[in-house]
């Protein structure tokens, strides 16, 4: 089995939210905090070049990036020079513009290469909310031990003390909903988790937070 096919098998098995089909790429919505916690690499970067590589059945796009800041992945790869993605959008490939924007990019590392796709969290940096930027810097990491459970039908109730109920699904906004844009699920005292927003540092002594 080639290295490419080995990666594809591992990628599909480790990312159950991904559904690759011929017509389109379909992804289950994921809260930015989960996208952060489930990624090997999280960076802010500007794309400065791209090259179509002839590996894999449909080719791979290799983006050359100028890393501005790393939020996750220091122990794995302290500096990222290239980001790899499928060349085809129908296979969840990401299209990034060269020398135009700074991006927030999340991805997984396989055989020393960083891979990303449409089911990963990526966004133009200037479109991120202040809360999301604060989450990247500190808050999301505080909640990696918490579980964010999507609510698709009301009412929804937490089934364990470390759960935060994600209500954006009810309005069909998903990752672009209000909770996704403005809240982080933070671990409090005794293993309890609750939604947090605000300017002050999270108070871990608070268990019964009412937000949202």
Automatic annotation (TrEMBL):
Key words of the record: Disulfide bond, Extracellular matrix, Metal-binding, Metalloenzyme inhibitor, Metalloprotease inhibitor, Protease inhibitor, Secreted, Signal, Zinc
Membrane-spanning segments: none
Residue pairs linked by disulfide bridges in the UniProt entry: 25-92, 27-119, 37-144, 146-193, 151-156, 164-185
UniProt-listed SUPFAM superfamilies: TIMP-like (SSF50242)
Gene Ontology process terms (BP): negative regulation of membrane protein ectodomain proteolysis; response to cytokine; response to hormone
Residues that coordinate or bind Zn(2+): 25
Subcellular location: Secreted, Extracellular space, Extracellular matrix
PROSITE patterns: NTR, TIMP
Chief place of localization: secreted
Claim: Secreted is one of the keywords in the record: yes
Residues in NTR domain copies: 25-144
UniProt key word Nucleus: no
Domain of life assignment: Eukaryota
Entries under Pfam families matching the protein: TIMP
GO MF term list: metal ion binding; metalloendopeptidase inhibitor activity; protease binding
Listed GO CC annotations: extracellular matrix; extracellular space
Signal peptide: 1-19
UniProt family annotation: Belongs to the protease inhibitor I35 (TIMP) family.
Protein name: Metalloproteinase inhibitor 3
Species in which this protein is naturally found: Mesembrinibis cayennensis
Gene (UniProt): Timp3
């Amino acid at each position: 089995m080639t290295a490419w096919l080995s990666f594809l098998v591992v990628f599909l098995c480790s990312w159950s939210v991904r559904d690759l089909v011929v017509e389109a790429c379909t992804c289950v919505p994921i809260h930015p905090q989960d996208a952060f916690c489930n990624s090997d690499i999280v960076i802010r970067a500007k794309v400065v070049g791209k090259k179509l590589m002839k590996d894999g059945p449909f080719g791979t796009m290799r983006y050359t990036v100028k890393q501005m800041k790393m939020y996750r992945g220091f122990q794995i790869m302290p500096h990222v020079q290239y980001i790899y993605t499928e060349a085809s959008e129908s296979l969840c490939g990401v299209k990034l513009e060269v020398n135009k924007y700074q991006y927030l990019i999340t991805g997984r590392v396989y055989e020393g290469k960083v891979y990303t796709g449409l089911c990963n969290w990526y966004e133009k940096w200037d479109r991120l909310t202040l809360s999301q930027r604060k989450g990247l810097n500190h808050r999301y990491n505080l909640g990696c031990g918490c579980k964010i459970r999507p609510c698709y039908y009301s009412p929804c109730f937490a089934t364990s003390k470390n759960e935060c109920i994600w209500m954006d699904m009810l309005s069909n906004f998903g990752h672009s909903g209000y909770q996704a844009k403005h809240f982080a699920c933070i671990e409090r005292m005794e293993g309890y988790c609750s939604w947090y927003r605000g300017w002050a540092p999270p108070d871990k002594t608070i268990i019964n937070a009412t937000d949202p």
